[in-house]
């Protein structure tokens, strides 16, 4: 019996761990929300015990009629006064967390635009915008502002380990901010149904030491490295021949497309398309089985590319560090 219960609860408990969990906070905002959750949970448990205790008392212990005054007292006290006080306190506490979540931040401003089904990311820098996709990197220990927009339908931006979620609405600019306190790689997820591949609209929230972040950002601002000799150079030719540059930009090359993610430093990202491991196999899988990985996505599956060329293209992508 006990073993069955443990087995049955294992998936539930496993869902609370790891890099996409509100219960493993790695930021000031997530910690505040997690405290709020635990207090509400504890309150709910106490309330459940009280209600069931009262029920047990009147059905098993005191099986007599109650005086009218008592009954009215319980209804007014337990049904009106008590919930009004508890809910008011919770509401005030919840509202008091809002200003921090919307605070403008210390320095960095990141623009994130939801697309079907990926994330277009711009970092504001003195030298201009640094463009990336499918991952949001933030410096440790300071508050960064995140400006949220959408191009097509409503999406919602959420890195559970770092903070709350905010909707991304076409024609509207929403702002939030995050203050990470633990370096690491966390998982973000679109949390507003946005079409066929909503569940696959994932990304990474990467928290870096401030100095490492500064170096990374400077590197991202630079144009792409030319491909190494051999297969990677062949991959660059395949990229051009297949017309990939119509949708994707690789700064420093003729590829200037704006429809899909900027690929200038795609090899340096944590994952491919927010889902697959960032290695040549991951790139090959994505390019060949696009529609399998993210059903309905606008990029066609390039399954007609011969496997040699596909491997070369994947090597080229991986080399875009
Ligand atoms: Cu984007 Cu759900």
CA-CA gap between termini: 53 Å
Question: How are the strands of the biggest sheet laid out side by side?
Answer: 3-2-1-5-8
SS-derived structural category:
alpha+beta
Percent strand equals 15-25%
User: Which sheet architecture does the biggest sheet show?
Assistant: 5 strands, mixed
Bound ions, cofactors and other small molecules, one mention each: dinuclear copper ion
- Helix and strand sequence: HHHEEEEEEEEEEHHEEHHH
Rg over CA atoms, rounded to whole Å, is: 26 Å
Task: Report on this structure.
The protein has a five-stranded mixed beta sheet. The chain is built from eight helices and twelve strands. Helix 2 (28-61) runs antiparallel to helix 3 (68-101) and helix 6 packs across helix 8. It is of the alpha+beta class. The protein has helices spanning 2-14, 28-61, 68-101, 210-221, 231-241, 280-288, 290-293, 307-319, and strands spanning 109-115, 118-125, 128-133, 135-139, 144-150, 155-157, 166-168, 174-178, 184-189, 202-208, 271-272, 276-277. A hairpin with a 2-residue loop joins strand 1 and strand 2. The termini are far apart. It binds dinuclear copper ion (CUA). Dinuclear copper ion binds at residues 114, 117, 155, 190, 192-194, 198, 201. The site of dinuclear copper ion has 9 residues, from loops.
